[in-house]
Amino acid sequence: MPSKPLTPFQRESIDLFVGAFAVLSLPRSLGEIYGLLYSSEEPLAFDDFVTRLDLSKGSVSEGLRLLRSLGAVNLLPVEGSRKDHFIAETSLRKLAGGYLRDRIEPYLRGGESRIESLRKVSATDPELNDFQQKRINQLLSWHRFFARVLPVFKALAGKI
Amino acid sequence: MPSKPLTPFQRESIDLFVGAFAVLSLPRSLGEIYGLLYSSEEPLAFDDFVTRLDLSKGSVSEGLRLLRSLGAVNLLPVEGSRKDHFIAETSLRKLAGGYLRDRIEPYLRGGESRIESLRKVSATDPELNDFQQKRINQLLSWHRFFARVLPVFKALAGKI
DNA sequence: AGCAGAGTTCGATTATTTTTGAACAATTCG
DNA sequence: CGAATTGTTCAAAAATAATCGAACTCTGCT
Question: Fewer CB near the terminus (10 Å): N or C of chain B?
């Protein structure tokens, strides 16, 4: 039984973030946790998520860990309590930055070497080299594009 | 039995796109189909995907349909054949644009009304209005941010 | 019309991801 | 120290998503 029922504002916020997280293919429980935190003025303790969202301790533990690693949730020491308390990160730069850092950039960083190995195998097939060269060059230019645009995006997000 | 085995260049390309599609949480079969097409100079027929990638007709049918709806694959009439033939779309603007249009923008378009209903429920809870107002305003500014940045991103992608 | 080839549909199967829950630390308090 | 509280871990269950494949439709050909 949830000790403290969710307010309408909280329910709506949770809905909103569940949807937003779904756009990024992130699980519902993450959206619920972040949504509740975002719509709560006070820091929340571990147990609040379990009781008010009716999630298992395991889900909350994993969920908070992932959100913390994304930089979407911050641990906040609360004096007089030995429970962990959490608040939502609300800087768009940090939110977007964390997502990009953990989900997008790792693949992008590996991109050059993947294209390099394409070039290697292409060398063993002299017949199609012209076409293959075109493809490889295009992949390189796509890679450069993303490598340039991501920092710009982050910088813009920092202005919000 | 695959009639024509994949070249090393094709295998590497498929790997690359399977990974890239995975970043966007798109299924492996889509990455395989697009990767094979991207690395093939000639247009490919439906059956080529089935035999060379060892996928079921069902998967290929669904996969090509989704890729076409994303604008990542184009149908190409080949004279003298009544089979459908396909070529890869390689304009970054169209590729990125299609993804954004189908996956991101629909949620963004619904954003204003979701924020509006947040405002509505907030009105019924006068106590926390200050905090809630701050959150709502922030959500609005995030929404404006994305609504502005996406077109810029598309425009930049058009320059590649 | 009847047949063959080409592709689609969709219920069933398989694979993957998410969530649970119970056992297990770790820490604090009496 | 021993009990209680807090949170983590991870194997198993549940939920979800992807893939398959057989039946079907559609089109063109003879």
Answer: N
Distance (Å) from CA A20 to C1' D14? 24
A96, A97, A102, A106 alpha-carbon torsion, rounded to 10°: 120
Q: Which residue is nearest to nucleotide D7 (CA to C1')?
A: A61
- pLDDT recorded at residue A3: 65
A87 within 8 A of A94, measured Cβ to Cβ:
no
What is the number of other CB atoms lying within 10 angstroms of the CB of residue B7?
Answer: 18
Per-residue pLDDT at B19: 98
Phi, psi of B86, deg, nearest 5: -130, 145
Mean pLDDT of B73-95: 94
Residue A134 located in a structural domain? yes
**What Rg value do the Cα atoms of chain A yield, rounded?**
22
Across the interface, which of B9, B132, B142 has its CB nearest the CB of A92?
A: B142
**Whole-number Å distance between alpha carbons of A126 and B158:** 31
The domain in which residue B39 lies consists of 8-88
Smallest CA–C1' distance to D22, residue = B58
Measured CB to CB, residues of chain A less than 8 Å from chain B are 7-9, 11-13, 15-16, 19-20, 23-25, 38-39, 41, 90, 92, 103-104, 107, 110, 114-115, 117-118, 121-122, 124-125, 128, 131-132, 135, 138-139, 141-142, 145, 149, 153, 156-157, 160
In this structure, the answer to whether residues B82 and B104 fall within a common structural domain is no
Percent of chain A with pLDDT over 70: 98
**B83 and B111, same domain (yes or no):** no
Q: Please check whether residues A17 and A81 belong to one and the same domain.
A: yes
Report pLDDT digits (tens) over B34-55: 999 999 999 999 999 999 999 9
Among residues B88, B119, B135, the one where a domain terminates is B88
